[in-house]
Amino acid sequence: MNYAIFLGCKIPAMVPAYEDSTRAVLGKLKVGLQDLPFTCCGYPTRSLDLDASVVAAAHNLALAKQAGLAILTPCKCCFGQLRHAQRFLEEYPELAERVSAFLQHEGLPFPNGVKVDHLLTVLSKEVGLENIRSHVTAPRTGLKVAAHYGCHALRPSAVTGFDNPMAPTIFEDLVAVTGATPVIWPRRIDCCGEPVSASNPDLSERIARGKITSALESGSELLVTACPYCHMRFEELAKDMGLPLMLYPQLLGQALGIPDKALGL
Amino acid sequence: MNSQDQLWDVAVVGAGIAGMSAAIFAASKGLSVLHIGNGSGLVFGSGLLDVLAVHPVKDSTVHEDPWHGIELLRKDEPSNPLALVGPKAMEVAVNQIMEALGKAGMPYEPSTTNHFVPTSMGTLKGTFGVPTTMTSGAKAFENKWPTLLIEIRGLREFSAAQMVHTMGDKWPGLRFEKIEFPDSKGVFELYATHLATALETNKTRQAVIDIVRPLIGDAKAVGFPAILGLSESTAVHKAFEDALGVPVFEIPTMPTSVPGLRLKHSFEVAAAAAGVFRRVQSVVTGVKFDNDIATLTLQDATGNQEVQAKAVILATGRFMGRGLFADREKVREPLLDLFVEQPESRENWHSRDFFAKSGHAINRCGLLVDSKWRPTDAFGAVVWPRLYAVGSILARQDWMRQKSGSGLAIGTAWAAVSAMSDDFGSIGGV
Amino acid sequence: MEDTVFNGGFFTTALWIALGVCCLGLLWRLVSWLIIKIGPDAKEVSFLQRLGAAIIGGIKAIFSKRLPGIIGGFVLDSLLQRRLFKVSKKRWLGHMLLFYGCLVLIVMHALHVLLADKLFSDYQATLNPFLLLRNVFGVATLVGVVLMTSGRKKDWGKVRPARLPIDALFGILVVVIVVTGFLLEAQKMSSPKAFNRMAEEYGIDEDEIKGLRWVWKLDYGVAFPDLKGEPDPDLLEEGRGYNEDYCVGCHSKPQHAFVSYPVAKAAGLIATSTDAANVDKGLLYIHIFACFFAIALLPFTRVFHVVADPISLVVRGAASSAPLSKAGRVNRRALAMDACIRCGLCDFDCSVGPIAKWMNNQELLPSRKVQATRLVASRSEIKAGQAERLAVGAHLCTDCGRCTDRCPVGLDLADLWDAGRGDLSSKGFPAPAVWVKEEPAIAWAEALGAELGRVPPAGPLTADRNQFSACVQCQTCTNVCPVVANSGEDRVDLAPQQVMNLLRLGMNDLALGSKMVWDCATCYQCQENCPEGIRVTDIMLELRGAAWRQLGPVRDRRRSI
Predict the structure, then answer these.
(1) Per-residue model confidence as pLDDT tens digits over B239-255
(2) Which subunits count as partners of chain C given 3+ CB pairs below 8 Å?
(3) CATH class of A2-118
(4) Is C400 in contact with A200 (Cβ distance < 8 A)?
(5) Three-point CA angle B210, B214, B220, nearest 5°
(6) Does this complex have an ipTM over 0.95?
(7) C439-560: which CATH topology?
C-alpha cells in the first residue's frame, strides 16, 4: 500500500501533531507514504472562484497522476475539495478543457482517474479493521469516545462517497478498534462551525459549543476529530468546557503502543 | 465499497416508507441490497403509522380494529393491495418495522388497535402506530383529562389556540398557554427542528421546564407541538415527564415536521443496521433487463453510473415521488413505461364533485401486479421475472382516504420481499 | 597612482559625499524600523515603546543563553545560506560567488589602504597571489551576477517575483565596476605611458631602460609601438637583469591576471592610441564613480539586506525562544520591509501559486505581498482596481506558513500577512464575507439594478431552471440548517428555502447579498437532505462567487464617488 500524502495547508502550519501521529500510525501499519510538491487544494478559494479552486485541486491531482499514486489526505476539507474538483471536471467540459491546457503548460497530465482517499477510509477499508485490531497492544478499554464526523467528507455523499451520510458507522468502528467505547451522540454528524469562524465568530462558536455540549451530555470522556479545521475549532473551546480532545491517529497510536511523543502529545 | 463494483441481489428504487421497508426486509433475509433514493416521502410523514382506518371510503366509516377493516376490504375490494397482503402478514410486517424504528431511536407504543390522536388542526387522526412521545395525547382526549397545551411564540406551524377553539366543545378541560422559547427574543420565525435540537441540551430543556411548570395548575397532562428532541426524543420526552410530574405528549404538526425527520433518521439508522447500502442523492434514470441481470443507470452529481442487480424492487411512489407521471393524455410510469391501469380518458380522472367522499378514479390508478407482486402488462404477463412493485404506485387502492399509507407501504414491501426471497431460493441465490 | 588621484581633492570630496549619503540612508532606514506602522496593532504602540523594545531585544539577544544558537543560525543561514542551498544549488552558488567575490574585492582591492595593507605585510596589488586573486574574485562576481539573474524566467514562468528598477541599476553598477576594473588593469598592463611613469619614478636611466623595455614587451605585454622584430639577445639578457633588480619584487608575471592579460594582449595594438586618448583616465573615473554611486545607492537598494538580514535572523532566533512583545512584533514587520531581498524563494512553493498563475494575479504571491503590505499600511490612497487585486492576494492566502519556513532571512511572513489583512480591512477592503454584510441584500440588489438594469445570471446551477422547478418549499433545507438554528438574535435574513424560492423566481440579485448566503457553513446538510435533489449548498457557493464578481465592482464604483 503506497499513497501520496496530501497534508494541505492547515496541518503543517496549525496542527503539526496531526501529521506526526498520522505518519507514526501509518508507518506502524505498513502504509507507505510519499511526499509530492502539493499546493493548496483549492477549498478556501471555492467561495469566490470555482474555476480557480478546481484548477488548484487539479494541479495536485495531476501531480499524483504523474507519480502514479493514489492520494491520502488526513484533512476532510481537502478530501472533499479534491473530490468536488473531480466532479466539476466531469460536469463542466469547457472548464476541463481550460484546466487541461493550463496543466499541459505546466508539464502535467490531465488528472482523470486519480484515487482520492481520506485517512479514515484508508484505515477502515484498505488497511482493514481486523488488521488494525491485530496490532493493538494497549487497548483503551472503558474510554467513552465521541467521534466527530466532519461535514466535508461525509456530504454530499454522491460526491465524496465516504460513508452512509445519514447513519455513518466508519468512525465509530475505528474508535471501537482501539478498545474504546464509541458514544452515539445527537450532534455527531453536524457541522463544527469552523467555516464561518472568520466571517461570523459568534455564530461559529455557538455551533461548536452546541456540539461539545451534546458530546458531554451524552457521557463522552473524549472527543476525537479527523480534520484539522474541526480540530482547530474545538481546540480551545473543548478545553474550556472540560472535554478532552484528540486527533484520531493519536488515539489509535496510543492503542498501538506508539509513545506519546511520536504522536505529538 | 462502491455500488458499481458488485452484482447486487436486490436494487431497491425509492426511499419512502415502502422502499425503506423493502430494503430492510430484504437485507434482514441476508440479501445484498443497494438502495437508491433520498427519502423524500419520509420527511412529509407525521410519524404516525396508519394501517387502515377508513373503509368503505364512500361512507367514511372509521374502524378501531384495522384487522377487521382489512377483512372487510377483502370482501369488498379483493384486488386492493391491502387485501392481497392480508391482516396476518400486515401485522407481522408493521410490528417488525415498529421494532426496527424503536431500536433506531423512535419507539412506538405496542399496539393492536387504532388510536385517535389529536392533531394540530384540532382534529382526531385514527392511526395504528403511535410514537411513545404522542401516546398520552390519545389517552388525554379519551379520558377528557384537564390538559394544558403549550404554544410557542414564533412557531408558526402550530397553534394551540386553534386546537382549543376547535376541540373545546368535545374537550372542556383543554386550555393553552403561549410561551417564549429560551433565547428567542426578537426572533420573528422559529423552526420546529431547531427547537427540537435545542431541547436535546440540558440547559434549554431545563429553561423550558421552568417556564412550563408554574403553568400546569390542575392539568393532568401537558401537550407540546412535536419538538421534544430530534434523535433523542425518548430521552427528552422522559425528562419532561419526570420534571413536570404529569403525562406529556407531542402533537404532530404540519409537514415537514420534526417527527417526519425523526422517521427519516430512524429509517436510515435501521437500514444501515440491517446492512443496506444506501445511495442517497441518486436518481435511477433507466433500467435494462437481460435474462438474469438488471442494469440500472444512476444519475447523481458525479454523472451517470451503471449498477447491476439480480432483482429490482420499484417503490417510487405516485405523482409526488415521480413514480407516476400524468401528461395531457394519460398517466405513465416514467422509468420503465410499465402498464398503468387507469380510466380510459382524462375526463374520467375526476368525478364531478371535487370533494366526493368516494374519491376519484385517478386516485386508484397505478400498476397491476401478479400474485408475486410483479408488475404485469394489460394482459397479466409479467414484465421481468424479478421486477417487483410495492407501495403507493400500485393500483386499486386509495391510501389517503383509507388512511392506510404506511400499512400499504410496509405490507406490500413485506409480501413482495417474501415472494422474492422464495424466488431466490429457487434460483439458487443467497 | 590611486593615491595621487585622491590627493586631488575632487575624488575625496566625491567619496565623502557618497559616504555621507550612504550613512544618512542607513540612518533613515534604521529609524524607519521604529516608525513604519504595519498592522492594526501598530497604532497602539509609541515610538519610545518601539525603541525600548528594540534596545531591550538587542541586549537580551546578546546576553541570552541562546546566543550560541543565534550565532550558529547566523553562520548557517547568513554566511552559508543554508536555506537557499536547499531550494536551488544554482542560485546558492550565484549568491556565494557574488557576495564573497564582492567582499574580497572590497577588502583586498577597494580598501587596500585601510585593510589589505595592514592584514598582509607584503601586500602589493601587482604581486601574486593578489594579482591572481583579484582576477579570480572579479570573475566570481560576474559569474555570480549571471547565475543570479539568468534562468529566473524559466524558474517562475509567467509569475515572477517583484523587482525594482533601482535593484537592476545596482546590479548594472556592479558589472560596470568589475568590467572597468578588468579593462583598467588590461590597459595599464599594455600601456607604455604607465611603464615610462614607473621607470621615471624608479630613476632608471636611458641605458638600462632599453633592455628593460624589451623584457616588458615580451614578458609583460606592454605595447611599445617602436619595438619591432627580434631584440638583441645581449640587450635582452641585460634587461632581464635590471628587471630582477628593479621590478620583480613588485610585479608578478601578468599572465596570472588571467582575464586582464588576454584583454591586454588583444588590445595591445591600440594601446598607444588609448594612451593618447587618456582612456585609462576615463576608465578610472568610471570605475571609481561607479563605486561611489554604488556606495551612495546601497541603503536604497535591496543590497541593504546585508545589514538588515543578520539583524532579522537574530530577531527570529530571539522570537523562537520567547514570543515578541507587541512593539517587538511591530518593529519586526518594519524591519521585514528592508530585510526582504525579493529573492522570490517564498513564491517558489507558495500554496496558492497555481491559483496566482491561473488568475494571472501576482498579488497572491508572497514576494509581491511584502511590498503590498507596506503600500496598504502607508497613508497613500490605493486605487480601487489595485486594491481589489491586493485584497484577493491577502484573502486567498491559506496561511500555510510555507513562505515563513522558506524565507532565508527569517521574516515572520505569516504575521505580516495577518497584519496586512488587518490594514486592508481598516482601509475598507475586508474579506468579501465581511463587506457584503455592510448593506442588506435588498440594497445590493437595488444598486446592481441601478447600474445594470437587469439581473445578471449567477452561474450554471442558478441559471438552470430545472434545479428549482422541483422545489416544493418543504423547508427541509432550513430544518437541517445549523446556521439558521444557531443564528441567535442576529438572525439570518433569509432561510435557505427562501433563497431557493428567490432563485426559482429568477431573483438572483436579491440572493447575492443575503446574509444566509455568506454565513452558510457549507455543511451540505441541506443538499444531502433535499427531497428533490436540489444542490442547495453548491448553489450557495455559486452565489458567493457571483456576488464577489458582480457586487465587488459596484462597491468599488460607489466608494470612488
Answers:
(1) 999 999 999 999 999 88
(2) A, B
(3) mainly alpha
(4) no
(5) 110
(6) yes
(7) Fumarate Reductase Iron-sulfur Protein; Chain B, domain 2 (1.10.1060)
